[in-house]
Amino acid sequence: MSKFGKRWIAAGLCAGLSAMLMTGCSSINKNDVVATFGDSKVTVGEAGFWLRYNQAGTESSLGSLFGDGNMWEQDLFGTGQPYGDTLKSQILSDMEEMVIMEAHMADYGVELTDEEEAQIDEAVQAFLAANSKDTLKAMYADEETVGRLLRLNAIRHKMQHAIEADVDTNVTDEEAAQKTIEYVSFSTAATTDEDGNSVELTDEEKEAVKQQAQDVIDAMNSGKTMEEAVKEVDEDKTVNTMSYGADDTVMAEALKTAAETLSDGEVVSEPAPYDNGWYVVRMVTTFDEEATEEHKSEIVEERKSDLLSETLEGWEPETHEIDSDLWAKVTFDVGFNAPETESESAAETEAGTTEAETAEAGTEEAETTEAGTEEAETTEAETTEAETTEAAETEAAETETK
Questions:
Q1: How far is the C-alpha of 79 from the C-alpha of 311, rounded, in Å?
Q2: Contact predicate 155/233, CB 8 Å
Q3: From CA 179, how far away is CA 288, in angstroms rounded?
Q4: Are 217 and 269 spatial neighbours (Cβ–Cβ below 8 Å)?
Q5: Is 198 exposed, middle or buried (0-12, 13-18, 19+ CB in 10 A)?
Q6: pTM for the full model?
Q7: In DSSP terms, which residues pair with 285 in a beta bridge?
Q8: 222, 239, 223, 224: which is closest to 186 by C-alpha?
Q9: Is 37 exposed, middle or buried (0-12, 13-18, 19+ CB in 10 A)?
Q10: Residues 307 and 167: beta-carbon distance below 8 Å
Q11: Residue 57 CA to chain centroid, in angstroms?
Q12: With left for phi above 0 and alpha for psi between -120 and 50, is residue 41 left, alpha or beta?
């Protein structure tokens, strides 16, 4: 997977924060260079501020889920490394992406307008005024550093829009065509007894399960809906609906095989087998217009993402140096809380889902919004992954903030 195109940047972070010292902060000269990408150098103060900015947003949104536990020390994604290390790695990739885009602004005629520059300056001053000296120190934040990161992120968003403008947005019905089915599964998988032991179903029990599936089919052929037919045999069983197309890679093969034999409104004549049971499938429509239009949008977004990643990879500089020892000194030895007066604003901010449109500096909440217009956004959310889902990925994906 490309290291570009997946950002975990928390957006709409409340400016007023209180820093909680957890251990002794290591002494760091924030002007020291922690990374060199081509002709661009990133100081540990710049990378450290971007890390703290994201850390604070994530703790504000997700910290309560972990109680007294340190979320940064936990392996949330099963990758074998603490979440903090994952975020630190992503921050450096994020910094690289931003300085690479800055270096190629002229290629797309991108620049920040006077109005956008003014909005950035206002946002910087609002952020500095809203936080104590101790908090700013813990975040490696000063006027120059905060302004630098807001400008880099504003440039990134304008560059992204410029790059994606070259994407072909024409998607044919044939390419995006979606079918929609409804189905229910009848499982014959082993069960667990009171002692926690796995118990396999007998052949007779498996036949009884299959008969339930056949009873549903018979009831539907007599005029009942799948929902009605299923409730007659099992009140707890759920009817599922899903749309899929030729490019689908998620749908179970046995389910797709059964569905492909059906015309609009048809139900399978007998239970369709899979590894641990049977499906009852009904084809709702072989061409779902609404689902097809939605998939067209998904295809366009995927094209944009692919083009952005390909463009950035083509720009990746030959020089790519990281001072690992220096970056290791930046630890999660502080935590952040939003003051009570800011709680409502903080609650409205979900990491990875909010994208500020302009720099609303000097408000009562003193929000740190992005600098600029929609084309000069300074924060961006993704999922995912985290996506979204993917259990913690949806939380991240979400902290995939851009």
A1: 28
A2: no
A3: 6
A4: yes
A5: exposed
A6: 0.72
A7: 180
A8: 239
A9: buried
A10: yes
A11: 14
A12: beta
**What domains appear along the chain, each with residue ranges and CATH number?**
18-168+299-399 (no CATH), 179-286 (3.10.50.40)
- Distance of alpha carbon 167 from alpha carbon 340, whole angstroms: 45
In angstroms, the CA 45 to CA 87 distance is 16
Angle at 12 between CA 83 and CA 151, to 5 degrees: 90
Contacts of 64 (CB under 8 A, 6+ apart): none
Distance CA 152, CA 141 (A): 15
- Specify which residues 337 forms β-bridges with: 18
pLDDT in tens, 297-333: 999 999 999 999 999 999 999 999 999 999 999 999 8
d(CA 253, CA 191): 24
Write out pLDDT tens, residues 15-46: 566 555 554 455 789 999 999 999 999 999 99
The distance in angstroms from the start CA to the end CA of the chain is 17
* Rounded-to-integer distance, Cα 95 and Cα 48, Å: 11
Q: How far apart are CA 285 and CA 279, in angstroms?
A: 18
Distance of alpha carbon 220 from alpha carbon 169, whole angstroms:
41
One-character DSSP codes across 223-271: T--HHHHHHHH-TT---EEEEE-TT--SS-HHHHHHHTT--TT-B-SSP
Sequence-separated (6 or more) residues with CB below 8 Å from residue 149: 46, 49, 50, 53
3-state helix, strand, coil split of the chain in percent (to 5) is 45, 15, 40
